[in-house]
Design a protein that fits this description.
By secondary structure, the chain is α+β, with helices and mostly antiparallel strands. It contains 11 helices and 14 strands. The strands form 4 sheets. It has a 5-stranded antiparallel β-sheet with strand order 8-3-5-4-12, with helices on both faces. The protein has a 4-stranded antiparallel β-sheet with strand order 2-1-14-13, with no helix packed on it. A 3-stranded antiparallel β-sheet has the order 9-10-11. It is globular, with a radius of gyration of 24 Å.
Amino acid sequence: MREVADVMRRYGDAYVEKFGASIPPSHRRALRDIRDCRTEVLGGHVYACDRCGHRQYAYHSCKNRSCPKCQGDDTEAWLAQRRRELLAVGYFHVVFTLPRELHAIVRRHQKTMYGVLMKAAARSLIKLAADPRYVGGRIGVLAVLHTWTTALGYHPHVHCLVPGGGVTPEETWIAARKDYLVPVKALAVIFRGMFLDMLRKALPHERIPNTIWKKPWVVYCKPAVGGSERVLRYLARYVHRVAFANSRLVAIGDGQVTFRYQSRAKGRRPWKTMSLPAAEFIRRFLQHVLPRHTHKVRYYGIWHPSQRPLLRRIQLATAPAEIPSATEDDGATPMESPPAAASENRKCPCCREGTLVLLETLPRRTRAPP
């Protein structure tokens, strides 16, 4: 199977040589990690079959959050944690996008503006939902940052998961309407005002185009899929999705990378193919690598970490039968128990009768001296 790592191995050095010092440290690290992921560079383990002697090498993963191969375990760990915080109510999926005129400003100041974007989206939702005409209570918002289109273009936007209801000052749960949360046109106006106000305060010397006041800002809202577990799985796809999946690669060679992408046409979104010079493909991919210490997922309202006691009380009030007891909640999480793969015998893929036994641990390759 073709992988992004193959592109990095073939053309990564040429990309670094071409752009040199202009490459941010986070991009350099992502390029290096993806290239070395699950290779002898990162070390690993050697297993041997106790029957036929077959040897199997298992190399370590890079664990970079931009690597297409390293998100499965993170997704399961995230799901295990979020199951303890989910409310047994309906949910809404809300998406906030920015006008194209602001993309350049956000890209130049990613570390600052990504936080501003997520905070403005959450605050506008919380403000409008507090209106008694809609929800009339304090809601929870789980915000996930995305920056890409399917063709790897730059398109910063935020996906939000919102429970269908809110909490009054008396800590009473108020359910929202089943298929309606807040009016999206009013939400877009509030979001625009909050974002631009926060932008001016964060970057007072940046020139903001006047045209953004004359065009509508796009905010999308719809009920999420039903069932708490389906809601979690649905959101996990957004939380740990990276800009590009290996399954979309079609061909690599002659300095070109060909991949599949979905058209943004309304209605059906047919798959098309695009070929780019390898350096341009790497550039597009790396522009979606977040700066170091930038949080991709943030929690607001009743889902904020400081509101865990309140959230616990609301969980018990809305669905006491589905929430684990307090003693269980304070105990070990599912991630603290040994993984199933570690306790089961590994069958030999060669003879299919013997068991793979750990033979040797391979150290990580040390960096050569300068």
